[in-house]
Amino acid sequence: MNIEDYDTEDFACDHSFQQYCREENESSVAFWTAWISQHPEKADLIISAKQLVVFLSAGQGNRLEQLSHLKRGLQQRTLLEVSLESTPTVQKHHTRKSRTYLTALAACLAIGVIGYFVIANNPLSNSYIHANKAEYSSTGVDRKTVILPDGSLITLNRNSSIILNPKFSRTKRELTLTGEGFFEVTHDAEHPFFVHTEAVTVKVLGTVFNISAYPQAKGETETSLFRGKVEVSLNGIPGRTYILKPNEKLITKRVTEDSEMQDIALTATNLPEQHLNSKPRETAWLRNRLELSDERLEDIALKLENWYGIDIEFEDNEAKSYRYSGTFESETVLRALEALQLSYPFKIRSENEKILISK
Question: Is pTM, for the whole model, over 0.90?
Fold first, then answer.
């Protein structure tokens, strides 16, 4: 199969891609680094495939055994595809969706996963935590995670806050940030998402970025983009706008206390997305590395709750007893829960600013 036709599971089952993700082979790393840089439109697929390689391998034996599992999953997937294509009752417009689901399921079954498989979809995509307050703040010792009515997720660093526009909704998306926040904005081309700070206004359609705009930073604001595209406008200077591409950062700084904001740098961040283990320092405050050894989901949820600043509750006792082993690092609570779902699925929904888990 042509690499350009790969889907998430194809990348994950490619031995060379696995070596690239684990940085085990220099030629594989060089090949995929170059290929990914030449195909920026594949960014979301690559991210999902990297997660799949890492998380499906957690707690499943040594590397050779993991590779064997993934190869068997690929073989089973091929059989399912053939079966799917030969089934006359399947309607054409459902074929691709059904194939994706079944092939992913085959890969999961190959390593003993029970239930269905979720990878790139937000587990709360159809059930949002409705922001019913005008302002959300973190404290000096805790972070705070908020999921907005449009499905966008914001994690606030310590001593940070957001104030929502009084008419904030899925069609009018605008807020003001003080401090630092990590944003995963739900894509909506017709309804841009605006983040206002003292120095800049950031306009997004759907992307992942970090803004640091603490008042005590002497007028310095950092906007770091990791995925998608944003437009940064300098407040008070009409027409001064910058378009950021992934892995770029715009730093603005007031030269003197009374001066207008002046842009002083537009530099690449330390995030080479093509390397799985390379993490940007701009989000070091947010990342939570979990090393799990046969731990109960109830205990893991408590760790996530304390780190990300959002309540996590269980709707039944069975899900509490699910056990996980492995090591992973995530920048949001939703990505962490998605990673766990890959190994032993459970359901997630939200209600009254809480994440609820059930079997």
Answer: no
